[in-house]
Every structure is written in C-alpha cells, then in structure tokens.
Write a structure and sequence with these properties.
single chain, 176 residues, alpha+beta, Cytochrome Bc1 Complex, Chain D, domain 2, two-stranded antiparallel sheet, 6 helices, 34% helix
C-alpha cells in the first residue's frame, strides 16, 4: 500500500486489514531532511480490541486538560510508549509489542545500568534512568550489537512533553 501525502492536507486511505498486528509505516521517497524519521505505525485490531480501545479513548476525554490521562506515572509511561509508535520497532511484552528493528526493551531497566559500563558506550549517563532518557532524547551514544545508528527517530525530546517523557523513562526503568 502506498499513498502520496502533502503538508497541510489531510488525506485518507481505506482498506481491509486481513490480520491483526502492528506494522511499520515509512516514507519510501528520499524526500529531504528528516526522511529517515518519517515513520509511524499502523495498528490493525480485532473488532473487540477496537471496541475496547474506543471505550478507553472516550473515558480519557473527560479528564481535565493537561492532567495525566492515566492513573499512575507507570500507567502514563506505558501509554506514552503506545502513543509514540515505539512498538513498531521495539519488543516489549508488557504492551504486547514485537518490533525487531530496534533492541528488545524487556529488561532495559537492568540492561541500561550495564550498558554505561561498556567500553563502547559514548554517552554521559551515570544511572540506568539517565541512560534510558539519553537513548530516547539523544540516541546513538551506545548501539547494541546487531543494530544501527540513525534509525531510531532523534526528535522524541521535542515531540514528547516533559512530564510524559519523565513517565516514559520511569516506566522503562521499571522493566527489569
Ligand atoms: C524506527 C524504529 C524505532 C522507533 C520508532 C523507536 N526506536 Fe528506539 N531504537 C531503535 C534502534 C534501531 C535502536 C538501537 C540503536 C540506537 O540506540 O539508536 C533503538 C534504541 C532504543 C533504546 C536503547 C536500547 C538499548 O538496549 O540500547 C531505547 C531505550 C529506545 N530505543 C526507546 C524507544 C522509545 C521509548 C521509543 C518511542 C518513543 C522508540 N525507541 C522508538 C529504533 C526505534
């Protein structure tokens, strides 16, 4: 499936998904600066899953603007993970994500503490939490074997709100 889109123009596309799953959507024209970051995800769900998602969306709309839509920081972090397309590239059992373009994030809370001691680590983090934050906002300071730099979008520090980012980091640090 392919669709041309233009800035400032809303375009839609209809099709029938034959199987549920989370799929990577990417730009396939070398369109200019930021081309490699033009990725999002397509989520195809069963009727029941979609109905549950729809119900959860309408309950969050009644929350006052600006407040966390989830009941706890960890639940908020989980939601931030799901809303930012992380699942398209990463595996994380807690959210049912099975992406393989990036490293498996199960156990990242423990692994991050080991990564900062690795001789090939080039960042400045001194704790697991800092390492996870750095991996999200200024990636490529440590590339786990088998993965490539410049694939993970480099602009999450701008696109994710500060309190959502804090929640996301705490949530991932808790994955031990
Ligand atoms: C387009 C694919 C892609 C997306 C989308 C993506 N990542 Fe990544 N991510 C990668 C790749 C590839 C790496 C390994 C290379 C690197 O660190 O840049 C990585 C590395 C990481 C690491 C470090 C893991 C380790 O073991 O070193 C964390 C943490 C991480 N990503 C979190 C996230 C979060 C949170 C999101 C969503 C806000 C996200 N990623 C979205 C591809 C992606």
């Amino acid at each position: 499936m392919q669709l041309a889109v233009l800035p400032e123009t809303v375009t839609d596309l209809r099709f029938t998904a034959r199987q549920p799953g989370t799929f990577l959507v990417e730009c396939n024209k070398i369109c200019g600066v930021g081309h490699s970051e033009m990725r999002t995800q397509l989520v195809a769900e069963t009727q029941d899953q979609f109905a549950a998602w729809l119900a959860s969306q309408s309950s969050s709309v009644v929350q006052p603007a600006g407040s966390a839509q989830a009941s706890s920081p960890l639940a908020q972090g989980r939601q931030v993970f799901q809303l930012n397309g992380c699942a398209a590239c990463h595996t994380l059992k807690d959210v049912g994500a099975s992406g393989t373009i990036g490293p498996d994030l199960d156990g990242i809370g423990t692994l991050a503490a080991q990564q900062i001691k690795d001789p090939s680590y080039k960042g400045h983090a001194t704790t697991a939490q800092d390492r996870i934050r750095e991996a999200i906002v200024s990636p490529y300071t440590y590339i786990p074997p088998g993965f490539q730099a410049n694939v993970m979008p480099g602009n999450f520090g701008q696109t994710i709100k500060p309190d959502d980012l804090d929640a996301l980091v705490s949530y991932l640090a808790a994955q031990k």
